[in-house]
Amino acid sequence: xxxxxxxxxxLARRPDNSAFKQQRLPAWSPMLTAQTVLPFFYGMATxxxxxxxxxxxxxxxxxxxxxxxxxxxxxxxxxxxRKDRANANQSCxxxxxxxxxxxxxxxxxxxxxxxxxxxxxxxYMDSRDDGQMIGRNKNLKNPSSYCEPFIKDxxxxxxxxxxxxxxxxxxxxxxxxxxxxxxxLVVPLFRKGITWYTDKNVKFRNPQLENKTLTLAQVFxxxxxxxxxxxxxxxxxxxxxxxxxxxxxxxxxxxxxxAFPNFKKLYGVLNRAIEPFTEGLPAGNYSVLIxxxxxxxxxxxxxxxxxxxxxxxxxxxxxxxxxxxVTGCLILLxxxxxxxxxxxxxxxxxxxxx
Length: 354
Known about the structure:
Layout: H1 34-60, E1 64-68, H2 75-81, E2 93-100, E3 104-105, E4 108-115, H3 122-126, H4 130-133, H5 137-140, H6 164-167, E5 173-179, E6 184-186, E7 189-190, H7 197-203, H8 216-219, H9 249-255, E8 263-270, E9 280-281, E10 284-291, E11 302-309, H10 319-345
Antiparallel strand pairs: 1-11, 2-10, 3-9, 4-8, 4-11, 5-6, 5-10, 7-8
Helix pairs in contact: 1-10
């Protein structure tokens, strides 16, 4: 026979007679009065408005210029050419001219932008093999099934890198030219160091084989390039052999999907070590020479180049300053209403009707 419970019967589940379980511990309940609530509301309104004004002034001190080149300037012929998929392997170059009215002082960032391109679709985002991109040899020629239908090329070779994300990689290239009174100068851009450190050094690595004498092309032997690429992954940057394969910085930037259908991605940063760009981009006439490869008419999209300076707060984005200003004004309005109610009825409710 087991030992009988100490508190058998109808009171067996009653909590112990202690201060904690019977809720006899001392407690503090704040008394919300006009003298405590109203100063808090006015203080919060002041903080939000001042912070909003500060951020708005900071944002307004940055410069941003967007140039839509979808079919602007001489790019109209390239736009029409890209409508036919049979011309995918043919090159097309065009030029767009624009003007910068005020000097872009400090560091200037060069972006390319896409409009109405949805990188945030779940099926699109899943269409990749992270094991392959991290350099695992077993995944190089045996990609994940998530990459379907971009898993093998027309010859039956495994695609590297596989998947819809890599297959749709943005492949326009740009050369920015400054036209001064004396001559035309190519604007120097840093094309390296544009990725996140963790992406470049952790998430994306080239396959490593025991034979260190193999070239990158030999490492990728037996694989095919994505269907709509003009170059294989091991030859994306012929000028820099250390910027090829899965560690190509343009590829890494593209593989980090955007959250919204209208987005921009970093292409380069102004090299300020060369005159006359030591202070930034001088005001004047510019042109951008474009190797026009990426088609956008299939999804009713547009393409643009973006030149922007940044502050400690980031680029030119008015959302957060306006949000603070609107929130501060709403809190101030609520504080005024509560003050009027308190003033009319009295803090003890003496003037309130029964």
